[in-house]
Amino acid sequence: MNILVIGGAGYIGSHVVKALLDRGENITVFDNLSSGLRENIFPGTEFVQGDILDKDKVFEVMGRQTYDAVIHLAALKAAGESMELPEKYAENNISGTINILNGITESGIDSLVFSSSAAVYGEPEYIPVDEAHPTNPANFYGFTKLEIERLLRWYESLKGLRFAALRYFNAAGYDVNGVVRGLERNPANLLPVIMETAVGKRDILQIFGDDYETRDGTGIRDYIHVTDLAEAHVLALDYIKEKKRSLTVNLGSEEGISVLEMLETAKTISGKEIPSKIVGRREGDPALLIASSQKAGKLLGWHARYSDVETLVRTSWEVYK
Fold it and tell me: Which alpha helices (DSSP H) does the chain contain, by range?
């Protein structure tokens, strides 16, 4: 298949591109390199530098050849920043996606895999969180992802677009084969922050609260290895092409890892004393957030294989060290 991967030079996008290349697909990467890296662009892929806010450029790249599908991973994703700069997130995430959707329909492309987020759910009302859980985003980033999902359903109804909306939980780790090695720019998630502290890029790791009702007092999250995540994109694309129907699924490991468990594992694997300090809780942080990925297992035959804490940390340390 000829596949256009928008955001394919980024952290998750580069792993998705690798998974597609591994099975012989023809890939074009479209990325503005604001967070993506040139070193993440694989030999044998066509690369077009451009921004999803540039409608003419979006239409141009989609008209270069006949694409069988688009994978859309281009979004601003810092939840905290989205609460301070909603206009920036509305423009990039929502308006940019509208340009993509209109380019898709103009070009006659019938399949889209969309990078959504567990942030669409907001504060969990029950655990594990399944796809039937109420959607009530707690931040503007999550709101943009939910609005895009609504747009997708309208384009399906009105334009015949088939889509997969993949609601990620916490993506982490690096390519288990050691091929993708480009480091994230300005990461805000736990594991890369631990890694940056281990190698001295940060002075200290802040742990936001140690008085939660969890097994060690720190917050527990569902981490999914990025290699597992990439495999899910491939399976989701196959599903919508073969079944000719759309789907929305959670992608998580169904296991919880606490902040302290991640930190202690990183100390063991790296052999480094990673300085940390307890600070106050962050507003809106739940004690526990774990996915149900039963639907992805049933429909896609997908299960997390590499999302244990040791593999997450080891594959990250191999790159950061």
Answer: 11-22, 55-62, 79-84, 86-89, 96-107, 140-159, 190-198, 226-243, 259-270, 294-300, 309-320
Neighbouring C-beta atoms of residue 226, cutoff 10 Å: 28
Closest CA to 112 of 99, 94, 100: 100
Is there a catalytic annotation at residue 174?
no
Which residue among 11, 67, 121, 141 is the active-site one?
141
pLDDT digits (tens, 9 = 90+) for 233-263: 999 999 999 999 999 999 999 999 999 999 9
Tell me how far the alpha carbon of residue 55 is from its chain's centroid.
24
- What single-letter DSSP state applies at residue 129? B
Q: Which CATH class is domain 190-222+254-320?
A: alpha beta
- Tens-digit pLDDT profile for residues 170-180: 999 999 999 99
Residue type, 270: S
Q: Which amino acid is at 14?
A: S
Residue with tokens 């209109």: 102
Residue 67: its pLDDT value, please? 97
What is the C-alpha separation between 263 and 199, in angstroms, rounded?
14
Split at pLDDT 50, 70, 90, the class of 134 is very high
Q: Please, are residues 188 and 205 in contact by the beta-carbon 8 Å criterion?
A: no
Closest CA to 15 of 167, 181, 169: 181
The 3 state secondary structure assigned to 28-43 is: EEEECCCCCCHHHCCC
Q: CATH homologous superfamily of domain 2-172+224-251? A: NAD(P)-binding Rossmann-like Domain (3.40.50.720)
- C-alpha dist (Å) from residue 251 to 118, 125, 295: 9, 18, 9
Tokens 């503005």 sit on residue? 32
Where are the domains positioned within the chain? 2-172+224-251, 190-222+254-320
Greatest pairwise CA separation for the chain in angstroms: 57
